[in-house]
Each structure stands twice: as C-alpha cells, then as structure tokens.
Amino acid sequence: MSMSNPGIPSSTEITEISFENVKKKQRVKSFTKGMLFLLPSIVLFGAFLFYPLFKTMYLSFFLTNARGETTVFVGLQNYIEMFTSPIFHQSMKSTFLFVLYTVPTTIIIALLLAVLANEKLKGIGFFRTIFSSTMGISVAAASVFWLYMFHPSIGFLNQILSLFGVESIGWLTDPKWALIAVAVTTIWMNLGFTFLVLLGGLQSIDSYLYESADIDGAGYFHKLRRITIPMLSPTLFFVITVTIINAFQTFGQIDILTQGGPQNSTNLIVYSIYREAFTNYQFGTASAQAIVLFIIILIMTIIQFKLGERKVHYQ
Amino acid sequence: MGYIELMDISKSYNKQRNVLNGIDLQIEKGEFFVLVGPSGSGKSTLLRMIAGLEEISGGTLKISEKIVNHLPPKDRNLSMVFQNYALYPHLTVEQNILFGLNAQKVDREIQQKRLEETAQMMGLNELLKRKPRELSGGQRQRVALARAVVSEAPLCLMDEPLSNLDAKLRANMRIEIRRLQKRLGLTMVYVTHDQVEAMTMGDRIMVLNDGIIQQVGEPIDLYNKPSNLFVATFIGSPKMNLGKAILEDSNLIIENVLTIPFEHLEMPKNLKSRNLVIGIRAEHMPYGDENQQVQNVEIVNVEHLGNETLISFEVGTELWTAKWLGQWLIQVGDKVPVHISVENMCFFDEDTGNLIQEATFTHKQEVVRR
Amino acid sequence: MTMPLSKKIVFYSLLIISALAVFAPALMAFVMSFMDNKDIMTGSLPKSLSFDNYLKAFEQFPLLKYLFNSLIVSVVITIGQLILSSLAAYAFVFLEFKGRDILFFLFIATMMVPFEASIIPNFHIIRDLNWIDQYPGLTVPFFATAFGTFLLRQNFKQIPKELREASQIVGMGDFKFYLKVVLPVAKTSLVTLGAYGFLTSWNMYLWPLLSTTNDTVRTVQIGLKQLQTQEQLNDWGVIMSGAIIVIIPTLILLFLGQKQLQKGLTEGAIK
C-alpha cells in the first residue's frame, strides 16, 4: 500500500474494466481453440452417427421407395407390424438365444486360458500369442475356416463323429444345429480379444496379494477364488458387457455361413435389418428394427457405465 | 517502487472461499525472495499467479511498473523452474535447454552461443546428448536451472525446486542456486515449504498461512521477532518453545508450573492482567550455574547431535527442548538445572496470537552486524 | 518361486492341449491351403504339398487388387483415427473451456450408438455423396472414434501439466505443443491405437459389403466372400489359401504388438 496518491484509484478502476474485457476475450479464444481441436470429431460424429441415428428414427415412421425416399407416413405401423411378425419374433428369439450361447461360454473359456497363460512358465509368451491369435483373424476368414469344419461330408467335425460311429450332423442346414454352429464360430472368434483383456486384468493384480497368501499357506484354488476372481471383477464386468454388445451386432459369420437360414433360425437382428433394408428394400421396417437394436445396446451401455463406475472406484 | 508489486491480490475458485486474501507485497530488483508456508497455504498459487499460469481473481499485479494481470506468461519476461523439473522426456538435454529459444525463434547462432555459456556455467557439457531419463536427480535439476538461465529473463520463479532431491544434494543445490542468482543478478521468487531453505536462501522471506501473509522480513528478523505464534513455531528448528503464562506480582507463571521472577528487569505495563503465551528458543535455555536463577527439570529425552545436545523436559502440558553446546552425558530421568530468563522470552497475546513484545536479550548479544 | 515338476507337467499339458484346440481351425486351413483338392475331398492326409492353390487364387481373382485396397483403406482409417482422436483427447486433457464437459458426454454417448443401427441412412449418405465404390466412402465414416479418444485421453493425462506450463512460459501455442511434445511423448499409445485401428479396419465386413459394388475398391474380406461363393468346384484349397492370405497381415501385426495391445485395451477399458 505504498500508493496513497489520489490519482491512482481512478486509473486502476479503468484497468479493472479492461481486465474484464480481456478475460472475456480470452474465454472466447479458449472456447474457439477447444472447438477447433474437437471439430473434426464432432463433424464426423454428427454426419455419420447422430444424424443417421435420428434419420433412422424418422424413417421408422414411413414407408419408402427402393431409393430409400420416404413415401407414406405410417406412424407406428412399422413397429406394430414388426412386433406382430413371426419372422421378427423368431429373429429376436434367435438373437437372445445366441447371446445366451456365446457370452458365458466365451468368457469361461477365455478366463481358463488367461489363468493358464498367467503362470510364469518358460515359453508362456508363445502360448499367449496362440490364445490371442483369433483376434487377428477376420470374420470372413474365420467363417471360411468353420465353413469347412461344419462341412457335411468332408468337414472335420463330422469326420470325428464318424470315427465314433455317430451319424453326421447337418451343422449349417439343420435348424436345430445352425444357431449353435454360428455360436461356436463366434465364440472361437471372440476368444482372442476376451483372453487378451482378461490376461491384462490378471497381470494388473498386485503380486503381493499372492505372496501374502503364500505365506498364509493358501492353495492354488483358494487363491483363485479368494484373490483372482474378486480382483478381476472390474475387468470381468467390462468383458461381459462388451461380449454381449458384440453378440447383438453379429453379422459377418451369418452372411457367410447360413444367410440367416435354415428357416430363419440364424436370422439375428443385424442380419435381419440388413436383409429387410438391402434385399427387400423395406427401409421403414428395417429402421424400426434398427431402433430396437439401438435401444438394446443403449441399455447395455448404460448398465456398463452405471455399474462399471462403482467397480472402477473399487479398484 | 518494487520490481514486482502485488496490490490487494486475491484468488478464489468458482466464487468460493478465497484461497488468497489481500496480498500486498513488493519484491525488489535483484532480490532473492522466498515464499514459505505449509502445504495448502496458497504459496504456489501466488507464484503461479505471478507467472500468469493462474488467473488473478482480484487486485493488481505489476512487473517492472507495468500492470500484467491480463498478460499471458510469455509476455511477462520470466522463467520458471518446477518441482518436477518439467523436462521434456523425448528431448535431449541440449534440446531441452534450447526449447524456449526455439519456440521464440531466436537466431541459431545466438542459440548456440547461449547454450555453450549455460552448459559451461551449469557443468552440463558432458550431458548435452542425453535424455532426461538417463540423468540423476541432481543432473535433471541442473538442466531445469539451465533452462531458466538460458532464457536470460530477469525474473526467475521457482516452485519447490529442491524437494525431490535427497538431503545432501539439497544442501549443495541451495548454495548453487543462491550463487547463480547473485551472479546473474536475477530477481528470484522462490516457493518452499521448508523453513531451513527459506532461512538459508532468502534475502527476505514471506511466511504465508491459510492464504494470509503472516510476516514479511529478513530471515533473522523472522527468527528473532516472529510477529505471531504461527511464525514463531514455523521458523526455526527445533521450534520455539511455547507456554501459557500470566503475571502475578513480579513473577511470571508459566503453565502453572514454572515461576520465573522478573528480577531487576522492569515489568512492561502492557503485559499486565492478560493471558499470555511466552516463547523461548532452545538455545536460550543454557545449563544453569549457581549464581543464576535456575529451574530444576526432569529430563525426558536426550538427543546427541555431536556438537550439541538437545534435552527435552515437560513444562505442564508442553514439551520443551533446550539446546546445549557440546556433549552432555545426561540420562533420561536426571534432574538438571536450566537457566530460563524472562529477557529471552517473546510475549504473545493468547487470544490473537500476535507478538506483544520481543525478547530483549537478543538485541544485546546475538546479532553481529558488520 | 519355482513350481514342482509335477505341477509344471500338468500346466504344460493343459497349455499344449488348449493351444492345439484353439489353433486347430486355422492350422487345418493352413495345411489345406497347400493340399491337392482330391486329398481334401477324400479326407486323406496330404500326399504332396504345393503352392498351386495360392497361384490359382491369385490367377482367378484380383486378390492383389483386393489386398491393395484393404491396405489403403486400413492405413487411411488408422491415420484418420489417430489424428482425430489425438486432437480430441488433447482438448479434453489440456484445454479448459466452457462446454467441455458437455462435449465429453457427447463422446461417451457415441458409444451407445451401434454403427449397425444407423447403417441405413449412412448408406444413403454415402450413395448421395457418390462415394459408393470410392475410398472416402470406405474410410471417412470411421475417422471419429470415442474409444480412441478415451484411450489417448487416459495416456495424455499422465503427461505432467508442468510440461504444458513450461511451454506456456516460453510462449508456445497449443497446436505446436500438441505436435512437438504431446505426440512424441505419447508415441507408444499412438502405436497401440494405430495397431488396433488397423486390425479392426482390415477386418471390417458389413460396411465394405454395402459400399462396394465392384472390384475397384473392394476389400480383401469381401473378396474372400466372393472367392468362397463363386468357387464353383468347391475347391477348398483355393478358398483356404485366400483366407490365409487375408489373415497374414493382421496376425503378424498381432504377434508383434500383442503386449502393447493388451496394455492398451486394459487401459482403455478400465479407465
């Protein structure tokens, strides 16, 4: 407070006012800067995600021509038809059955593999690579591999069966088996990714937990149940939701293996949307189905965020 | 008029309680100024406001007579050294040192010249091609300093630059930074939570607590005349011994246990009939000999430091420490005579915590001025 | 800690059995790709191994063209994703501005919209832009990714704020700091995201199926489907050789970057 000069206060007042302006300018500048960094992503999300989503909702209330232009507003008619259509019922039933077949099996097998591959043994890196390899195999290639495996006469599976004198199975042509065959292919394909994430989760568990358990003289399975599984729960949870979401989005394996058949038994929701839209050109009803898919995935994601949050804090 | 002037500076986040309040301060050109305080006192925030990294909520900041409140850091002509050194991990020592000059598009030749000078001065010649992760803590610290030096900015801000070093290295770097600052004539604003650093390095010190200035002054003044109880306990090690006291007749009664007569001293009027806290430094309680007024106390702890001995004893609920020169072979439980004299005491108001009267004795003996 | 031998044997046999089981379909395909069609049809063990199937696959199908297309598409998507998500992640970590939290929520929201649910209008958009059978149609819709942004954001957050502040003191702007400091420092996570992006774009199926009608930009995945459906004689050797060619690039990538990918996936997943 060295300044007792009466001339000073007025000048500080003036500067204070201009500070406000400067601050405002800076705020505008930092906002513009932030937007510039985010703009490319926002524009593309807008153009290829949010706009199409709303367009899908819009389309679901209309009939369209083959070019996808709306012709007649039908209100909820598309939805009503969809929910009363036995084909859609079949599709939903198959989809949920498919999720039921694939998700638990994928996770259990991947978890077993991850626990095995988490042992510190010589050459374990090789096994880890093998177990994760299916992540690098595309849907198309994997489906072709399994197309052979399921081949009615020369396929590996039926050859094994015939060794035991069991009659061969029409894996892809028998409505009883087709969904299972597609599920097996999917489980195999997802194994690599799931394994890799679970292995990462296992490796992030602090080794002192195991060391103190060793000092207490805990056995292998005791440690597995009391330390590994609980500590792994956040990863496990993540893997479960991702696998479920993936299962709902299944398309490629069906397109190559069964084309939705036999008798629509493998006509899962995405394939159903695809067929309705791009072979039947029924964009309105296809959009209604797409909205159903969206809502299912939305619920799954919200569950993941809500529950996952708590689990993450727990880490 | 100072080189840096802070006028009624305050800081608040989201219009909530102020982190800093009414800071008025002047820092002179070429001064080594230390901001010291416990963590959360707002000292780093203040430094970052001077740097321009933190918005100033209220008040005016001037650097070399220009108002700079609104200026970005680069227009304030200063350099800064961070606690974690902020070295770019992907760049070599040389590139790190030249980072700022490059950003300011300084001419190549000048860059090289300044680099050579700085590297020479900081003893970094051998390390120029290394990456930060290949350096020891002390070497990293040196690179961080070199970055400040090479900028040739007249003002240097340091935010706890030594707290990541071990004790021995820290003592060396204290001297080195201090010499560097004098040699280059830098104005230095140095933030630390370590009062030893503050005492040993600063031309002047500002003690900050809870966003409020406690005291500004030269190190020795802070030590001898702490303006309140906070400064009294914060500055100096071991910390100043405190005890509640009242005056009765011509005696001072401390913690209801010690009775110390005023003897021949005149009792100051302003001490009468109020609740006091007295403070006395450890080195002002020597072993009492026969012709002195002594208190017999029971030793509860002895620390041998080699050249001196710290003895602790209880005074009411307080644990006091005395520092005696030399080596004293005393056991815990021994009763020893201690000379405790009123003339070595600082008197504080118990309610406000403010200093009423400083120790009278120190004037006579301790400070040697040339 | 060393394991007793008996336990080791148990583990190794379990590992070997499961490795064989997991790898069997790919292994069989690999062997078949070198086998004579007669041997395959009769289910006998291979009498001779040759590259004939591969030669046939390349002769009868524009496989090289497909591979080239896939390479272009994957590289472009990968680069686009790296640029867009690193820019966005930078804004979320280093910039402070009004509306940032709302925009962050918007990015989270994108994870709730499956691409399949918006595929119909997307197809119409691409068609109206005349991007059918064009590289942009195959790549541009995939540049923006929330997963990539979150993964990089997680990584950028570990860069000390003081690095930015030190650069502010010497007057370096945000974009320059992003280019000169953030990108080089976060190199490994960029590589991870790049590998992941390449892997997923190489393996894309539904979208290339829709947005390509001829061989000009058709990717190798769709090429493989063509190979499989058009191979009249059901020549499994040729089909398998095509499939093997398709998976080789991604398998190599996976083998090289398995550790990195694993770390990146865990980080991106569990923030």
Automatic annotation (TrEMBL), chain B:
CDD domains reported for this sequence: ABC_MalK_N
Transmembrane segments: none
Protein name: Glycerol-3-phosphate ABC transporter ATP-binding protein
Top-level lineage group: Bacteria
Any one annotated GO CC term: ATP-binding cassette (ABC) transporter complex, substrate-binding subunit-containing
Any GO molecular function: ABC-type transporter activity
GO biological process: carbohydrate transport
Stored Pfam families: ABC_tran (PF00005), OB_MalK (PF17912)
PROSITE patterns linked to this entry: ABC_TRANSPORTER_1, ABC_TRANSPORTER_2
PANTHER family per record: MALTODEXTRIN IMPORT ATP-BINDING PROTEIN MSMX, TREHALOSE IMPORT ATP-BINDING PROTEIN SUGC
Gene3D superfamilies named among the record's database cross-references: 2.40.50.100, Nucleic acid-binding proteins, P-loop containing nucleotide triphosphate hydrolases
ABC transporter domain ranges (all copies): 4-235
Record's keyword terms, sorted: ATP-binding, Cell membrane, Membrane, Nucleotide-binding, Translocase, Transport
Automatic annotation (TrEMBL), chain C:
Keyword Glycosyltransferase in record: no
Family: Belongs to the binding-protein-dependent transport system permease family.
Keywords: Cell membrane, Membrane, Transmembrane, Transmembrane helix, Transport
InterPro entries for the chain: MetI-like (IPR000515), MetI-like_sf (IPR035906)
Pfam families cross-referenced by the UniProt entry: BPD_transp_1 (PF00528)
Gene3D superfamilies, A to Z: MetI-like
Membrane topology, from the record: Multi-pass membrane protein
Protein's name according to its UniProt entry: Glycerol-3-phosphate ABC transporter permease
Subcellular location per the Swiss-Prot or TrEMBL entry: Cell membrane
Cellular compartments per GO CC: plasma membrane
Residues passing through the membrane, by range: 12-35, 71-95, 102-126, 138-156, 177-199, 236-256
Record carries keyword Transmembrane helix: yes
Domain ABC transmembrane type-1 per the UniProt entry, residue ranges: 67-257
Entry's Gene Ontology BP terms: transmembrane transport
